[in-house]
Amino acid sequence: MKEQGFLKKARRFLGGNGCFFGLIFMIVVATLINTSFLTPTNISNVLRQMSTNSIIALGMAVVIISGSIDLSVGSLYCLSAFISIYFSQYNAVLAVVITLAASTFIGLINGLLVTKLDIHPWIATLSMMLGLRGLVLVLANENTYKPPVANASFEAIARQPIFTYLNWPIVIMVVLTVAVGLFLKYTGAGRDVYARGGNVEAARMMGVNVHRTLINAHLISGFMTGVSGIILASRIGSVSPLAGDGGEMYAIASCVVGGVHLSGGRGKIGNVFIGAAIIGMLTNIFNMQNVLSTFWESVITGSLVLIVVFIQQMAALREERRKRVTEAI
Fold first, then answer.
1. For 329, which DSSP code?
2. What is the pLDDT of residue 14?
3. Run of H or E including 249
4. What does pTM read for this prediction?
5. Under a CB-based contact definition with an 8 Å cutoff, are residues 71 and 221 in contact?
6. pLDDT score at 251
7. Contact predicate 82/140, CB 8 Å
8. In this model, does residue 2 exceed pLDDT 60?
């Protein structure tokens, strides 16, 4: 009996934290391909590069757990970078404040479209994605935008090191990961996100304001995307109107690989961070090898997401069969 209980707990742990073993596997593969992978310099580089996608994925995770989706983050990421780099020529603080206000407002609009107008989130955020991308193309005149006057304070956000291998994008990523994790686990509003994503009608009967919860989730997604856009603009010093193209897919992939269920109601923020790390390591691995074309990165990422979704679906079917058997007994 004890052995059966141990095996049951082991299966549950593997089912909920499989991404951790995926991360270990990726580290082993990366080390075999290039022995310099585990050097402090390269690890710092991987963390810095993955910070933008990881931060977007945090907001995406909250939205997915709430039972919605946000396809506009890639375009909003680009728009946020453009807004911040444009206003950086006047004042760094102004650039940050205006960008975060604008990105959060876009998140609010997404939430209102889904709740008040009852538009399906895929349609609402897809429309926003196309609209924002077109807006950036118009504002940038279809060219890469670089401000006439560089702002050293603004550029320091992503370029100024704290210590030898530690910089602000890494710190911001870690702080936001912890903050979102604590929000979902220890606040009533965070628990409402899980309740709504698990079962909307049950959540409503429990007294959860399902519309406000969904709007809050999209607000968080917009805010996180704005932070990510600021980091991108600060690091590069210019913005291409095509920046972030497909970024929504990598954010969703990070969530799925991290164990967030697309059906909503389930997912851990810590595992989303690991999922983003796995996606980021894939990019790093392809940059470090010369055998496969970089186009294979998308193939492998897509295949990985499909495998994880398949495993989640099988687990859901097993759980449904178990409940039916229990009810029959």
1. -
2. 58
3. helix 247-257
4. 0.90
5. no
6. 95
7. yes
8. no
